[in-house]
Amino acid sequence: MSTLPDCQTLSLRQYGAILHLTLDRPESRNAMSLDMVREMSTVFDQIAADCTIRAIILRGAGGHFCAGGDIRDMAAARSQKPGAGKDPFRDLNRAFGRLIQQVNEAPQVVIAVLEGAVMGGGFGLACVSDLAIAAENARFAMPETSLGIIPAQIAPFVVERIGLTQARRLALLGLKIDGAEAQRLGIVHQVVENESALAAATDAAIDQLIRCAPQATAATKALLHQAGTVPMSDLLDEAAQQFAETVRGEEGAEGTLAFMQKRPPAWAAKNDT
């Protein structure tokens, strides 16, 4: 089990195999500062190989998920001069891109619990979650073009999530949409009416995911990420090899035995969430 780092901008709580990661800057609607990016990146680095953590619950403190990037970091970067291969704006932006890629490729199941502002970088995080549950009060937007900048790091992930046609509409017009529209577009999977319903939906998702074998889940997620990027024949050859290995592996043996004995498999023990 990983030792979780001490964080100033995040709240971390682990219950059994579930890590709750809360963006904890409510005074700024959890705007993503460079410190927050660094702390989140450290967390995802540390848990990348930790098979005892099976899911990460991402949410924001104070009724908002994330209002986007921190304007103060932008102002600080403006006061620095580029030089010697360094550009403060580029480096600031690219640091978030590396984080969102980490979240996207994490072997664990990532569940985004979304309320209030889901803007900019927060919108990007929602788009790399494996499951997104939104409250009715959630509002989603890519407002960058209305601020004279571009959604440089999140745009490719938004296209992957909802397709080029809808990504164009949202990004080029800087539209703000509600949870129902976000669900229609495929940004979120479920919209619920209030805080208690959010908690119930999250608990239900956790109950479901612990029925699935952790190594098989991680391997399946990696396989899904390769679809469309690896030639189909090569991908199916590799998938067949992995299938054979999982059938012969501990999880495959336990799953088969549990099915025959009409009992839950060992990995499906109830978690304290």
From TrEMBL:
Q: Would I find Lyase among this entry's keywords?
A: no
UniProt name for this protein: Enoyl-CoA hydratase/isomerase family protein
Query: What is the phylogenetic placement of the source species in the record?
Result: Bacteria, Pseudomonadati, Pseudomonadota, Gammaproteobacteria, Pseudomonadales
What organism is this sequence from? Marinobacter nanhaiticus D15-8W
Q: Which InterPro entries match?
A: ClpP/crotonase-like_dom_sf, Enoyl-CoA_hydra/iso, Enoyl-CoA_hydra_C, Enoyl-CoA_Hydratase/Isomerase
Gene Ontology MF term list: isomerase activity
Family that this chain belongs to = Belongs to the enoyl-CoA hydratase/isomerase family.
Keyword Transmembrane in the entry? The reply is: no
UniProt keyword terms in alphabetical order: Isomerase
Signal sequence region: none
The record, for Pfam families, names:
ECH_1
State which residue ranges cross the membrane.
none
Q: Which GO terms describe its biological process?
A: isoprenoid catabolic process
